[in-house]
DNA sequence: TATGAATGAGTTTTCATTCAT
DNA sequence: CATGAATGAAAACTCATTCAT
């Protein structure tokens, strides 16, 4: 089921393309888009500066490609092969574990996605992806609310924004040195996230 | 009991200083530090570009001043005159209301503070302020945990990062067009925040 | 023989004028004309920057005034009350002593005069002064040559340039740390200068 | 026995480097360091302004490179292949001729070296070169003194500073229009220099 | 008249992009 | 195609000069 074997040249080319995206992701994540010059990206990717322009029209096209790849990777990390038939709490726990694994395994992509000035350079395609990728989460939240596991009055969009923000906040706190995120901390955050949505048991 | 009236010149000077900080806060919030050139800041502040350098040694000193003023304002908005003797839930609600008011009344300061990766340019004084200003929140969380209102196992640092991140996530979702933050949404987010920490009632 | 007493205001004014010239001489000597900003001159002179422009049309007028005062001072130091009737060697020694005293008592003026980029900003009046002030030296050299004390073939202009340059070279070497100019060194230089011109005794 | 021919590109690069140094030497010599802006240097070197910063970190690095090249060139012009075994007077005459040839063939380098107050921008390496290059002259003077050709009491450092200054003074006088330096003048200056050091014949 | 804050043109320096090799 | 030196427009910053007070 493999795709046709690529020629040496093509493989090489794909390789360079990936190296450029890797380098750009890392540097944009660290210094921001405006704060990153193109030549350092080239250097980190071990290509010439001019080569970047054979793959991407300009710096803005590059950052959009970086964004899309990162967002896609996030979507895959969260949902690929996810068993939606599980009981709510195990499903939620797996979701959280996947989120955390993504943040650890692709820290640059995660961090880049959380940069805040995206709106200045994202094109329509990227913006659309932004809206699409996390859509399954909305479905999950909606279902759990219907099932009576989550608060009936919980607004789905608020819930998603809050939980996502909460996770990001924890990871950002670590980067800023306010916190060390070990398994205990991740679990604590996960439990907070769950409780924030879960239906409160009425005392008898 | 007012302080002595300032001379025209002094008032003017303070004025310019403030106008520069205002302009810089707004533009840094919108475009990021590296993405903002000095002349647009000057133009927005209605001063010449060179004037900025009479008040601030360089662009980095300016962004640090912006940061400090914003952080101070946040601290004041959250804690000034806050009655810590209230019952836990009303106290928490007031805290949340103050947070929201700050985000609404000083949107640029809020946005600058929370939507930027500051670590590249903050100096030691600013970093110290960063650590200091929200310290009272930690105290609050700690007390509520001691009182048995919050989960006994709740790690204070994780809780703060998560709730803060959740709030930021909600405001960011609004800016990104994913959400409209009206009173209902704010209340929903507040309730999520509370539940995320609150001790779960054991079923009998 | 004093000039009419000046009013307080006039004295004050003359004072400021002198302070500005002093400050400018010192800073121009140290940093060069182009390397010296006007505000530091004002600060050193304890006047406001704008005040300088009440006394001098612009920076160029200021540097010309500095030049003229320094050159005049040099002329006076060298020739005022000089007894031209002395025997050649004592006359030469006194001349050298006066030159050295000027370099020591007005080091900034001396150093400023030896800066090399004067031609960029000196106006015609200053240039004329340049040519005039040292004219008496030419006369001295000429006479000594006529008297057979100096070499008969000695070109007056070369002799003046060489000796002046030699003295400057010694003082500059001190500034550059290559040399300490004490009395012994001054005397050695003086003797070199004398010998460089003096008629060589034929061996019998 | 030639070195391997350089590729077009390499030659071109070395060329640009040299052109920039040439242009900078000429302009710094004429207007001083602070008085020279970078774009005129670029224009004279027929490169873009930005190109200068590919070769030199900043303007200060450029002026240091200019200084070193000029000082090296002076050292070579004075000492390369100089036959130290000659009789004192012919050796001195050759030294003087070399000095004059340098001033004529590389007027900008000579002028830059001697007509600037370098101490504001020279780095340690340049300062070291400054002290090193003329060291052989000191040796020469010392030997001639030992041999009894020069005055026994002649202080070497004063002698060097005086003679060097004298030469510079003569060349400066020419540039200032006080003098025309033809062979006769050069010879006259050379003889002055010699006499300034030479042991005086006692009358019998 | 003196002040010194403000100005904005000019300076040094950076960097996205091109193009000869 | 890939390279990376070169470009020049734009950024950060300086400073001679002005003018409201």
UniProtKB/TrEMBL annotation, chains A, B, C, D:
DNA-binding region: 37-56
Gene3D superfamilies assigned: Tetracycline Repressor, domain 2
Database matches in PROSITE patterns: HTH_TETR_2
Keyword annotations from UniProtKB, A to Z: DNA-binding
Cross-referenced InterPro entries: BscR_C (IPR032551), Homeodomain-like_sf (IPR009057), HTH-type_TetR-like_transc_reg (IPR050109), HTH_TetR (IPR001647)
GO molecular function, one term: transcription cis-regulatory region binding
Domain HTH tetR-type: 14-74
Name recorded for this polypeptide: YrhI
Species, as recorded: Plesiocystis pacifica SIR-1
